[in-house]
Amino acid sequence: xxxxxxxxxxxxxxxxxxxxxxxxxVQIGIPTALRQHLAEKGIAxxxxxxxxxxxxxGAFATAVNEEVFTSLGVPHIDEVPTGSAHGPAMSxxxxxxxxxxxxxxxxxxxxxxxGCNVKWKTRDDKEIIMxxxxxxxxxxxxxxxxxxxxxxxxx
Amino acid sequence: MALEKxxxxxxKMKPDLxxxxxxxxxxxxxxxxxxxYDTAENAYAEGVKRFGREAFLVKRITEQEEVYRNxxxxxxxxHARL
Lengths: 155, 82
Fold this sequence. Notes:
Chain A is an alpha+beta fold and 155 residues long. In chain A, 16% of the residues lie in helices and 50% in strands. Chain B starts with a helix and ends in an 8-residue tail after the last helix.
């Protein structure tokens, strides 16, 4: 099982793990079936959208900023009830392929990702576009080392 | 929101779908029930094959639909909203 370390520290900002939470670089791409369809039709395949995923052990389902799907041209395939700070709501569900370049995980298919408006930048300029929920974390082993501002992930 | 027709048809058909396809994934486009599939991936692949980039519904057939709860969002701990 390959082991990957993510040290949350910069010269300018110092130790950041407690402030930002565990972050991993991520790319969101269109689902394989849609990619094959576009290729067969000779239509340009949109490039994956890059950003960072925040590991969110409190989340059951992985959520991705809806603007990502708009830019990829992927329509939603379902609407499901969700609970949020603003009370019960309905959220859109999208299919996606997820890539973690730093861990050599490419095109992991996710048939059901929640759309949300999570999008903000950390002080060290990392743009968060995804909350990595337990549906994805079930494939990983994670060690949160608060003292060293370091997160270890094994896939 | 899009998928209004599809969701309405699903709600109408749900009692019958539960009898035959409980646990499977339905594919619905407009007013047409296309089929039920073992996985969401298969239902989506069939949807793309037939309808390309157009909107269609892929939904799990289950008695009680699960409510997705993200605790940090539910407690208002993050600048995000589902």
